[in-house]
Amino acid sequence: MSRYISLFFLALPCLFVSCKKHKAGTGHDGWSTYAGAKDGDRYSSNTELTPENVSQLQVAWTYSSNDKDSANRSQNQCNPIMIDGILYATSPRLKLLALDAATGEQKWVFDPVTHDTAKNADPMAFYKICRGVTYWQDTAGGNKRIFYSVGPKTFAIDAETGQPIMNFGKGGYLDLAEDLGRKVTSYISGTTPGVIYKDLLIIGARVDESEDAAPGHIRAYDVMTGKLRWIFHTIPEPGEIGFNTWPDSTAWKRLGSANNWAGMAVDEKRGIVYVPTGSVGGDFYGGHRKGPDLFANCMLALDAATGKYIWHYQVVHHDLWDRDLPANPNLVTINHNGKTIDAVAQITKHGFVFMFDRTNGQPIFPIEEKPVPTNALPGEEPSPTQPIPTLPQPFARQHFGPEDVTDISPETHTDMMEKYNKVKYNARFTPPSKDGDWIFPGFDGGGEWGGAAVDPETKIMYISSSEMPWAQVMIDVPKNVDEHTLQGAGHAIYNRYCIGCHGPELKGNGTSFPSLVNIGKKYNELQIGQIIAGGRNMMPSFKQITANQKQALLAFLLKIPAKPSDAAIMPKEPVSSTKNVQNPVPYMMDGYKRFLDKDGYPGIKPPWGTLGAVDLTSGKLLWKVPLGEYPELTKKGIPKTGTELYGGPLVTKGGLVFVAATKDEKIHAFDKKTGKQLWEAKLPAAGYATPATYSIDGKQYVVIACGGGKIGSKSGDSYVCFALP
Ligand code: HEC
After folding, report:
1. Is residue 257 packed enough to be buried (19+ CB in 10 Å), middle (13-18) or exposed (0-12)?
2. What is the per-residue pLDDT for 484?
């Protein structure tokens, strides 16, 4: 009897408010966009799961796409969305999946390999980064589309059938390399999905980080036709706001990047899109890009309908440390000094939250221009000051001194002190030098693309953050390679395009950038050629490398002895000739180097990864707890250390923060008030992604992509969804 009564009451709301299952929730009651809603807040008004019952969570379903890389190089960073009871998600090889969000049952799959118009369907080349998808429907609801990017192509897929919409763009997709005002042959790729404003898809892109990177302009496309509706030049052109801040008036023609790769947030009421940007190409040396580098490293407020500039705030001037703004902004309304302010908050890799009045860009808490070191490499002109917010308090440690070097064991301490002392500087914003400086929090943050969650009721922000030092040491760009042999020409090409990540001795950095020593034992010429042309995961593609240059590069990588036929394929022009280099630079970083001890643990005292809660009203860091553990260390009695992590949290009205992200391959739930961990579950592979939560027929689900494949973790290809039994 009582069962029927409760069923009756459950059914009632559906009669009056149209049932959630049959409506695309746009607010906090669903998960209809990347990061939950257009405010970017990763917040859910669901209350079924609470601190009291979360420990009873069980696996509701698991879905495997069966397309991970067996060599553990594939990843999945997707934050899926839920529309009308269907979960839209991507797989490691960027298949687009439509699953029943309550059961995990597959509705349809779109496989981009079969739609590769270049007929260059090497499945390996489809291991790329995609952090999610964008949904749009017309007001009548007859036209429903999913937009998502596979490398340079942004597809429009019919949300009901899984078929590309052939009259959109170039036959179902946009080519991100077009419409940029100059011919782009270098890498460009969609990663974090775009946002919808009315009938516009507003998107950024990932480009390579070199001196000759493609432009990072922000673009809006017509959702119906795929036609470009507006473009905002992130490096301003003559006559545009900001152009006069560039000492060299040709900068806009020759430089690139200043791109939005981490997502945006939309204030629909005001019609403003908030766009965080990254640094200008040539990450670590800026002699070719003198000045503050507007609009790189900025929070940009643009008119969402027209792309017109409204305001900007530059968070890092003349960036020499790859301090891209790494996550979508969070929109939040706060009370400040007795006034209600609609604010936009932005987390950074260096561990700060910058907060502005959404209407005019005025800082909520004072931001001070602090003097920073200026001893720099010849030709460099570092900024004498950098902006540091007085509040909110930073969510990551700000200093890495000798007293912070690991003491996990006396031997490791001695060993790591020696290594520590080889890098000279530890002050924040020390310009890169041959003596080296510590980047802390590291190149991957601090804050990263997982983004922050904000509770709109309590105005508390939750951030998962790594505390890993990386060494930044500069070297001369290698010269004097004899380019008269095919191998020599290949060496020069390697130095130009590959050395920045794979290092001068081809050794990579052990984890994220693989060694290319003896690469011939692993791949044949064809396979290496495909990796170079297509890129893979975090490795950009190099379409600008010509066929002959590729032959030379292969001769170098595979140490193919010189033969008479070489003469016919010798690249005509030496690559090192200035004619071939748009923005020659004299210095480069000698590799991406995490500070790891001989056992692979961070060379800094814990915590190595944390979950923090920042009160956006007072600016106070309320709590910060280690996130994740190394079970073998915990067993030894060492308190939880946290682990380096990738992926963000979500927060619920029910009182919980969910986050996976850790190297121990677990998903965790915390009490949002206290930071106490209440539940965790082991995943099939690390959840280096941000979870989503939604409710169907009154039941709340939490789903996470388990892609692994970063920082030495094994790869996975499943989504795991949890619910109460
Ligand atoms: C921006 C950094 C970056 C640059 C520049 C770069 N790579 Fe890579 N490369 C990577 C990463 C990251 C991977 C691992 C990709 C993955 O996860 O599958 C990789 C993987 C590879 C692999 C496969 C290695 C393996 O063990 O599976 C080859 C081969 C390779 N790169 C060659 C090159 C060549 C040749 C160049 C220059 C034309 C180059 N890379 C430039 C970052 C880079």
Report:
1. buried
2. 87
Nearest CA to ligand 1 atom 7: 539
pLDDT tens digits for 654-684?
Answer: 999 999 999 999 999 999 999 999 999 999 9
* Distance of CA 147 from the midpoint of ligand 1 (Å): 28
Long-range contacts of 507-516 (CB under 8 A, 24+ apart): 507/591, 508/591, 509/591, 509/592, 509/593, 509/594, 510/596, 511/594, 511/711, 511/712, 512/538, 512/592, 512/710, 512/711, 513/591, 513/592, 514/73, 516/557
**Which tokens hold the place of 51?**
């601190």
Q: Which residue has the tokens 């030098």?
A: 433
Per the listing, tokens 């992604």 go with 689
- Are 231 and 217 a contacting pair, CB within 8 Å? yes
Q: How far is the CA of 499 from the centre of ligand 1 (A)?
A: 10
Residues 704, 667: Cα–Cα separation, whole Å: 8
pLDDT for 16 equals: 40
Residue 389 has pLDDT above 90, yes or no: yes
| Atom 37 (ligand 1) nearest CA | 498
- The pair of structure tokens assigned to 250 is 């040709």
Q: If you take atom 25 of ligand 1, which residue's CA is the nearest one?
A: 514
Q: Which atom of ligand 1 is nearest to the CA of 69?
A: 18
pLDDT band at 578 (very low <50, low <70, confident <90, very high): low
Ligand 1 center–CA 288 separation, angstroms: 26
Check residue 234 and give left, alpha or beta (phi > 0: left; psi -120 to 50: alpha).
alpha
Going from the Cα of 533 to the center of ligand 1, the distance in angstroms, rounded, reads 11
Q: Whose CA is nearest to atom 43 of ligand 1?
A: 539
Is pLDDT above 90 for 543? no
By C-alpha distance, which of 219, 189, 192 is closest to 207? 189
Mutate to test the pocket of ligand 1, among 189, 211, 501, 710 (most ligand atoms within 8 A of CB): 501
**pLDDT for 2:** 42
Tokens of 102: 């309550």
Of 283, 502, 543, the residue with max ligand 1 atoms within 8 A of its CB, to mutate for a pocket test, comes to 502
Per cent of the chain over pLDDT 70 is 95
Task: Give the residue-averaged pLDDT of 2-30.
Answer: 48
The best mutation among 187, 444, 519, 539 to test binding of ligand 1, ranked by most ligand atoms within 8 Å of the C-beta, falls on: 539
What pLDDT was estimated at residue 126? Answer: 82
When the pLDDT of each residue in the chain is averaged and rounded to a whole number, the result is 93
Give the binding-site residues of ligand 1, using a 6 Å CB cut-off: 73, 127, 497-498, 500-502, 512-514, 516, 519, 522, 528, 531-532, 536-540, 542, 553
Alpha carbon separation from 219 to 142, 231, 236, 257, 259 (Å, rounded): 26, 4, 14, 14, 11
Residue with tokens 């030092």: 469
Distance 130 CA to ligand 1 centre (A): 18
Distance between CA atoms of residues 507 and 503, nearest Å:
6
Question: Which tens digit of pLDDT belongs to each residue from 333-359?
Answer: 999 999 999 999 999 999 999 999 999
